[in-house]
Amino acid sequence: MLLDVVRSLGELGVGMSPEELDQALNERVLELDMTLGALVERLDTTAGLILAVDESRPLGIPGESFWFPYTDFLLRIDGLSDLADAIAKKAALDPFIASERTDEWVIIKPAISLPPPWNAYEPSVAKEVATGRMYIVSSPAFLERCISTIESVAQSSDFIRAFRQLSPDGNGLTYLSPRMTRQMHGLLDRVIEANGSSVTTTIARFFLPDIGYPVGWVVTNRDDGILFTSNTPSSHKSTLLTLGYAALLPALAVVGTSMLAPEPSATQSPFD
């Protein structure tokens, strides 16, 4: 376990001491009724991330010409229901956060519509009562869209192409659709347009997947290390760089401002 490694190194004088580690683990997380140690104990779990890019809806950074496509996001983490309950308990005392409970869901979301530049999103934390799963989502409507859809991305021809020659067994997988790889290149193009080309952007371009190409990775934990396999021709040392670029899209959503009015959702949220 990682904590055992940190503790052993601390006993040798490397990094924080065991006493400092114990003190850190006893600290409350975000001032919630939950300690960091209790949270770490639950991290041996399953997690998943979904990003959905809408290329027709540009979002701009306030005061800048830089923009990125509207990107919905959903992070699902199993085994952290206690964290969702702690957030909901604190939300009950905050007039700007709404906490709702039904037989199926515990929902924490903004009590009022967010002003620009965050009006394109309704960031929420949701706990599914039956499973204890916690979701962090760009909006309750997107959560409903994800859990109610009858179509699976695994059924698409692009997904099948990306994983056709990869092992079906592993501890995790990552899939980038042609739309996502196209937007990753577009994001880099706009960075270069704003700041100029550099050695860093040249290296980044070299490691990014081809434009419009579906990419799949399978990761397997083994006794002798971690094995990455993929359908990309580049070194797997580029994996973290590529995933870092993909992660920029939801991160930018936090500071992005909608240039278009948010589209009304045709699907009713399960939390209304």
Give me a quick take on this structure.
This protein has 272 residues and is of the alpha+beta class. It has helices at residues 2-11, 18-25, 36-41, 81-91, 140-148, 157-163, 178-195, 199-207, 239-253; strands at residues 47-60, 67-77, 97-101, 105-110, 124-128, 134-137, 172-176, 215-222, 225-230, 257-258.
Net shape: globular
Helicity level:
25-40%
Topology, number of strands: 10
Rg of Cα set: 21 Å
Question: Which class best fits the helix and strand makeup?
Answer: alpha+beta
Task: Tell me the fraction of residues in β-strands, as a range.
Answer: 15-25%
**Order of strands in the sheet with the most strands?**
3-4-5-6-2-1-10
Distance between the termini: 42 Å
**Annotation field: number of helices:** 9
- What is the residue-mean pLDDT, rounded to a whole number? 76
